[in-house]
TrEMBL record, chains A, B:
Alphabetized GO MF terms: ATP binding; corrinoid adenosyltransferase activity
Chief site of localization: cytoplasm
Function field: Required for both de novo synthesis of the corrin ring for the assimilation of exogenous corrinoids. Participates in the adenosylation of a variety of incomplete and complete corrinoids.
Gene Ontology biological process terms from the UniProt entry: cobalamin biosynthetic process; porphyrin-containing compound biosynthetic process
Stretch list, region Disordered: 1-20
EC number: 2.5.1.17
Keywords: ATP-binding, Cobalamin biosynthesis, Cytoplasm, Nucleotide-binding, Porphyrin biosynthesis, Transferase
Localization of this protein: Cytoplasm
Name under which the protein is recorded: Corrinoid adenosyltransferase
Native organism: Nitrosomonas europaea (strain ATCC 19718 / CIP 103999 / KCTC 2705 / NBRC 14298)
Length: 208, 208
């Protein structure tokens, strides 16, 4: 129990808290009323920080939880033992395509990397024409764009012509400006601090 | 087929590509060799942008894919129809706790919010002492800290005393500096652009 002479102060504090939260609620409610449109979103998750692909996979879980159908295309296959692939390929309502061969500095062959990316994009094109796919993840797509394996104009045109309610999430560092311009939501994951810089290796369940 | 006189240029381009990727590979390989430590990480995902909670749920999927055990504590319960809850509560190896009552501007009662948060933290404390939990998500924990419902010193002390290999992911806007200081990895999700600002409502499978 607080001493008796603090009761007024506590009551005052509780009242200020209530007023502050009432104002906050009014602001939030008004914003929610204003946001009344629905559409298939194009989301770009970029930047150097941790959380781009994992955020995309969190949206996969959300969508599956609502009974939606999901397509995933991974353009860079850094390793073959990822938890996300092991987990999601066991689930219903999801198709999972590994379209890349590894980081480009592993192949070191431009013609081969281009050919792999182009073959991958034709798989994506099929999903971008399929209205039964509610959410499509294009994981690490920014790298094929950055290295010139895919034409940004063709990618943008295919994205624009997709089904009206299909959501697409694109991840990877250094997303091109034209891609960000076409997106509904763009988040930059900024690396404030990263365990890797402190000599800690990629951790199972966190980084892959 | 390119015209014959472009062959030398193409060969030159391919060679420069190969050299660039060889240098990149050397840098990446050296960094991987340096990063040889393993530990339970503390990750903080903060900022105003989209992707904090979804990234945490992506790590849940990764961890489950590796057969790890996961605990989730949600401190703010904005709505009762989330895809992540519907999806993950159907999976094995996961415990899911909803510890909040909704956004604080809905209750507008400081004493009640404090009591709810303190009761929630005692549930978290049990998981922070349980070495069989490999990954623990404390979703939207920054709000109880920001509003003073929980003591940051107690929270930090409990985090520091957790099992050595347990990973903890904390999400929410405005993470306190002391929490970021204690973390191994901190990402700021920066809102470059958000569909909500263009009048688009929260989308099923993307935002919840």
């Amino acid at each position: 129990m607080p001493p008796a002479d603090s009761t007024d102060m506590d009551a005052d504090k509780a009242q200020r808290y209530r007023s502050r939260m009432q104002r906050q609620k009014a602001v939030v409610d008004a914003a929610i009323v204003r946001a009344d449109k629905s559409k298939g979103l194009l989301l770009v998750l970029t930047g150097n920080g941790k959380g781009k692909s994992s955020s995309a996979f969190g949206m996969v879980a959300r969508a599956l939880g609502h009974g939606m159908r999901v397509g995933v295309a991974q353009f860079i296959k850094g390793r073959s033992d990822t938890g996300e692939e092991a987990f999601f390929t066991q689930q219903k309502n999801i198709v999972w395509h590994v379209l890349g061969e590894g980081f480009t500095w592993d192949t070191q062959d431009l013609a081969r990397d281009r050919e792999t990316a182009r073959r991958g994009w034709s798989v994506v094109q099929t999903m971008l024409r399929d209205p039964s796919i509610d959410l499509l993840i294009l994981d690490e797509l920014t790298y094929p764009l950055k290295f010139g394996w895919l034409e940004i104009s063709e990618v943008l045109s295919d994205l624009q012509n997709r089904p009206a309610m299909q959501h697409v999430v694109i991840t990877g560092r250094a997303a091109p400006d034209t891609l960000c311009g076409a997106a509904d939501t763009v988040t930059e994951m900024r690396d404030i601090k990263h365990a890797f810089q402190a000599g800690i290796q990629a951790q199972t369940g966190i980084d892959f």
